[in-house]
Every structure is written in C-alpha cells, then in structure tokens.
Design goal:
about 325 residues, MrpR N-terminal core-binding domain-containing protein, MrpR_N_CB, three-stranded antiparallel beta sheet, hpI Integrase, Chain A, two-stranded antiparallel sheet, mainly alpha, 2 domains
C-alpha cells in the first residue's frame, strides 16, 4: 500500500464512508495522488486548481465512468475536510465554485474530442485489430459529421460523393469538406460484405457474419433475403455502440495512447457534439467579426449544418452553453505526439 500524505486524516475519512465501493475508490484516489501530495507538500483537500488538473492527468482510469467515480471521491473527500474544518472554503480546491468549475473543465477536456485528428486517432487505437467490424466505426463517423441516429440509419451508399467530398441525406442535409480519414472509413463500410474474426484479437469468439444486401451503408445480418432491405433499427445501432465499448475494454496497458482512448467518450451524442463544436470553432476562426457571442447569434449560425430538425432554436442555447465551456477548455488532447 502506498504511504499516504496525512495518512491519519485519510483513514478518518475512510471510516466515515458507509459503502465498501466508496472506500475502494477512495483508496485508489489516495494511492494515485500520493506522489503529487508529497511533491507539492500539500494535502489533496488544499490543492489549487492547477494541482487538481495535474491530479486528473495523473490518475489512471479504464473509461469515462471510472473517471466520474474518481471525481466523486475527490468531491466527497473535499466536502468532508470542510465539514471537519481540516480545510476551509477559502481554499481554492475547497471553494464550491472553484470545484464545480474544475469538474466542468475536467469533464470537457477528458470526455470530448477537440479536433478531428484526435477523434480519428482514438478510433484507430480502439479498432487497431485488422479484422474489426467496420459498421460501428461508420456509425461514429456519421455522428462526427453531425447526423443524428435516425438520419444515420437512412444514409444510403449513393449519399457519399467521394469526389465532391460530401455526404447528402435526401437533399436535406449535406456534410461538406469531409476529410480523407472519415471518407476512408465510410468506403470500408460500403465495401464490407462480411466479417471474419479469424485471427482477430478483439472478438475472437464471434462467428463469421455476412452482411445483408442493402442500399443503406449501415447493414445488419438477420434480414431474410426475400425481404425488401430496410434501415437498421435503434437496437442495431445500440449493438454497434456496445461493440465499440467492448473494444475499448479489451485495450491493455497504461501507455499514453491507450489511456487517451480509454477516457474519451465514444457515444454518438458526445461524438456528434465534438464534431459540430470543431466545425463551429473553424467557422469562428475564419469570421472573427461574426464570433458567436450569445444564443441569438448561435441561432443564426444554424446554416452551418442546415439540419433544422436536429438543431432547432430551442436546442441552440443548450449547445451554445456547452460549446462555450468546450472552447474555453480547448487544448491539444493528443499529448504524446
């Protein structure tokens, strides 16, 4: 067991916890930050904001859910220290407004991607197995381009124009300037007719599958041949997402690329937000005089996607708030290159 800084205080805190799961995560938290506490000669409850950010960069977690648990353990320990007057609300780490700000920053810097490069790098790491099923990757790529779940299921092979670098859905919504990286995965999805897991390391137990003949890019395997092809269902899309999560769980090791891939959220909503946020940031950089400053100017920028159903005005303000925080905490999240 790692020698904790102010071990007696931390043991008192452990005794105050009711659940065994809370104690286990507190132990993991204290073990992970002990070296920083000795380095700064400061207890975790009195860490400054910069120290806390360094703490989250030091801790090892397998996925975003584990990251949230570490965050909750830290909040619980900080609140307990305030209650016992070991720390005060004047401490930068203990002040509720500072802590909430830190949590938001940590969420956005760890959870969301900040560039298409980082998104594609994460997909590459998670799907490094050469025999990986391509459909789930295409699902995420469409989310990155700004399509919602219902739209993704309806996208046909003919919707992708590789020369014009566009993806068009029934002439209603067009994603333009699609990158080579995204297009390469879409082409693999269009061309894939079967998946053979022989030699695969991620899903070696899965049987070989043959994809149904269909004009849609995302296809399933359980359609009767005589039936007219139909779009995949929400359940099929959920299954694709579960394959991505399973692939993340199979990642071994604690080197920087693996840890980076583990902490990023690959849910379609989070990927879709990051893709749209990156596009909006690029637009702002080219139109400094038109920088988004409030929900009204954001509503006027909806023509970036021309996707009125998904980004209706009543959703604009929520996206704007999230985007403002995301942009403020924006950083190069590929730290090992």
């Amino acid at each position: 067991m790692t020698l904790w800084y102010h071990e007696d205080i931390k043991k008192q805190f452990m005794e105050s916890l009711d659940k065994e799961s809370e104690r286990l995560f507190a132990i993991a938290l204290f073990n992970g930050v002990a070296s920083l506490e000795y380095k700064y000669d400061c207890d975790l409850c009195d860490f400054s904001k910069s120290m806390l950010i360094a703490t989250f960069n030091t801790l090892e977690w397998n996925n975003y859910s584990t990251f949230i648990v570490y965050r909750c353990a830290l909040k619980s320990y900080t609140d307990w220290c305030i209650k016992c007057k070991i720390s005060t609300v004047d401490s930068p780490a203990a002040a509720s407004f500072e802590f909430d700000s830190l949590i938001t920053a940590a969420d956005y810097s760890s959870k969301y991607f900040h560039s298409e490069e980082s998104f594609l790098e994460c997909v590459k790491i998670v799907t490094q197995d050469a025999g990986f099923y391509v459909m789930p990757i295409a699902y995420l790529c469409f989310a990155w381009l700004g399509f919602d779940r219902k739209q993704i299921a309806l996208i046909k092979k003919e919707a992708v124009d590789f020369e014009a670098r566009t993806v068009t859905l029934d002439g209603v919504y067009t994603a333009t300037n699609v990158s080579d990286g995204i297009l390469s995965y879409l082409k693999m999805a269009i061309d894939q007719t079967e998946y053979d897991p022989v030699g695969a390391t991620i899903f070696p137990e899965q049987k070989a599958i043959v994809l149904a003949e269909s004009p849609y890019i995302l296809r399933r395997t359980n359609q009767v041949a005589e039936c007219e092809p139909t779009p995949v269902t929400s359940a099929t899309l959920d299954n694709m997402y579960q394959k991505i999560l399973r692939a993340k769980e199979c990642l071994k090791g604690y080197d920087a690329p693996i840890m980076f891939a583990r902490q990023k959220s690959l849910s379609y909503k989070d990927v879709m937000f990051a893709g749209r946020a990156c596009k909006l940031r690029q637009w702002e950089e080219k139109h400094e005089e038109a920088t988004i400053k409030n929900r009204h100017s954001w509503a006027k920028a909806l023509n970036l996607w021309d996707n009125k159903r998904q980004l209706a005005k009543y959703k604009a303000y929520s996206f704007f708030q999230t985007y403002q925080i995301w942009k403020k905490e924006n950083q190069n999240d590929i730290t090992w290159k």
